[in-house]
Amino acid sequence: MTTLSFSKYHGLGNDFILVDNRTSREPLVTPAQAVALCDRNFGIGADGVIFVLPATADTDYTMRIYNSDGSEPEMCGNGIRCLAKFIADLEAKESQIIEGQTENQPRSLPHTYSIHTLAGTIRPELRPDGQVKVDMGEPGLLAQEIPTTLAPDNEKVIDKTLEVAGRSWQVSCVSMGNPHCITFVEDVEAVPLHEVGPKFENHEAFPARINTEFVEVVRPDYLKMKVWERGAGPTLACGTGTCALVVAAVLNQKCDRQVTVELPGGNLEIEWASSNRVYMTGPATLVFSGDVNVEAAGR
């Protein structure tokens, strides 16, 4: 029997199983086991499993993640906020060196971690107000960076026509280390997400599949979004997708560079700064911790 210690966190309802993987440079569970653990009826239930691995190069830690379908994305915005909180909780427990001490002693805040991901180095900052602000880096705008065939490799993919589910959609594509397709709609609640989401994700125009954001512009400083995530389906929030949609909205002259984005699970604050870096601020919340029999999870 393989017993796995874990903690479950969520960022605006986008939930993850967090695993202390610092004793190994490879994830402690397989993609198939991650699928079983993410099962909401027969497992713990989550949108993905995130592993905290040892540092790479000049970073503090390394992040790996398996989606609920077993695929491995380059990065996850809500996930890295949860990761930062998880690391801080681990460090606090390990700092309990005073005999008889029972309360965690957190780091002085704000504090920034340097995290190696498949999308590059990401730097989440734990703030005194409990929020996590993440420097998400610079967006990729060229077709080859997405990747997509909607434009020549060295051109931007802005306001292009894509045929999906029997209708034409105007789309823009942005990479935040992982691929996103953004389309603006009049009423985001009217989008048949379960019908069109899979067809966007697996469209031939996206050889690595795609995350898709459906966006309603309420005001230049306030947007509403629903998302179909590659490898996870509909989720209550998507951090990288929220960053990507703001970049796309600015390039389509639909919003300001600093906005609030409303997702089904709550709001994120996004800024596309003049430095070309995108900053995301939002919560990360511990749900519970425990141990699980990996072999017993799943169907």
From TrEMBL:
One of its GO terms (molecular function) is diaminopimelate epimerase activity. Its EC number is 5.1.1.7. The record marks H180, E229 as: Could be important to modulate the pK values of the two catalytic cysteine residues. GO terms for biological process: lysine biosynthetic process via diaminopimelate. Substrate binds at N14, N67, G77, N78, N178, N211, E229, R230, G239, T240. This is Diaminopimelate epimerase. InterPro entries: DAP_epimerase_AS, DAP_epimerase_DapF. It is an enzyme of class 5 (isomerase). Homodimer. Keywords: Amino-acid biosynthesis, Cytoplasm, Isomerase, Lysine biosynthesis. The keyword Plastid does not apply. One of its GO terms (cellular component) is cytosol. The active site is at C76, C76 (proton donor), C238 (proton acceptor). Pathway: Amino-acid biosynthesis; L-lysine biosynthesis via DAP pathway; DL-2,6-diaminopimelate from LL-2,6-diaminopimelate: step 1/1. Pfam families: DAP_epimerase.
